[in-house]
Amino acid sequence: MKVLEAAEAYARAELGGDSGGHDWWHVHRVRNLAVELAREEDADRFLTELAALLHDIGDFKLSGSLTAGEEAARRFCTEQGLSAEDTDHVAGIVADLSYKGAGVPDAPLSLEGRCVRDADRLDAMGAIGIGRAFAYGGLHRRAMWDPEEAPRLHATETEYRSAKGSTIAHFHEKLLLLKGRMSTDAGARRAEHRHGVLVAFVNEFMAEWDGEDGRG
Ligand code: ADP
Ligand code: NI
Fold first, then answer.
1. What does each C-alpha distance from 32 to 22, 29, 41, 116, 183 come to in angstroms?
2. Which residue among 68, 179, 180, 199 is least packed, with the fewest CB closer than 10 Å?
3. What is residue 111's predicted lDDT score, i.e. its pLDDT?
4. In angstroms, rounded to a whole number, what is the distance separating the alpha carbons of residues 124 and 33?
5. Strand, helix or coil at 51?
């Protein structure tokens, strides 16, 4: 329990103030969801919960480094006295979790890693996912939608990371694809409903954009 408490304190301190979708409450939701998926999937609860708590520390979007997250997780686990095996496991999950573009396959992960990844992705879907996407878009001064700029299915991580498209484009470039990229059954079941919320939102958004909503 001590280790999880320390991980929570670490995540709260590191992520507390970010308003671009990576705040502490994102980690809180991912932790709860990941633990629930782990229970249904018979994954190791402790390692799942720990990786969920550490998963966004040193994230590329906040640190600008692709390895800072893994390094921070490794340092934390070592300081907490975890075995080398558990440290490698948790740091490996943190390293390979993130979405890297529509055309970039997901890294193979342990069952615990897949529970955390699915939980992280579920939090980018549904009503919360819509809220986070527009919070991120606003923070980065992105247009909500630009009809003159088609969404792009990025083939490489570099392309995906440097994209500056509209927030609705991001739905097509990532959020609407997440349902097809769940890697646990428990996650896939939850993704069905959240995906439906995204689809209904985008359809309504486009109808309003074109002034075609609410016509008798
Ligand atoms: P991951 O956890 O898979 O690495 P990201 O760090 O890319 O995910 O994204 C975190 C949150 O920010 C998600 O809710 C995501 O939808 C949102 N986000 C990321 N990039 C964009 C963007 N270009 N426009 C709008 N929202 C974005
Ligand atoms: Ni996350």
1. 16, 5, 14, 10, 18
2. 180
3. 98
4. 12
5. helix
- Our answer on whether the CB atom of 117 is closer than 6 Å to any ligand 1 atom is no
Instruction: Say yes or no: CB of residue 61 within 6 Å of ligand 1.
Output: yes
Q: Determine the average pLDDT of the residues in 74-80.
A: 97
25: enclosing H helix or E strand: helix 24-41
Q: What is the pLDDT of residue 215?
A: 74
The yes-or-no verdict on residue 14 having pLDDT over 80 is yes
The minimum-distance atom of ligand 1 relative to the CA of 55 is 2
**Do 113 and 51 contact (CB within 8 A), yes or no?**
yes
Q: For residue 81, give the DSSP letter.
A: T
Give me ligand 2 centre to Cα 82, in Å. 23
Residue 53: which of 90, 81, 108, 98 has the closest Cα?
A: 90
**Res 162: pLDDT:** 87
Nearest CA to ligand 1 atom 18: 133
pLDDT at 22: 75
Whole-model pTM: value is 0.95
Which ligand 1 atom is nearest residue 59's CA? 6
* Residue with token string 């990025």: 154
| Atom 4, ligand 1: residue with shortest CA distance | 98
Residue having the nearest C-alpha atom to atom 7 of ligand 1: 99
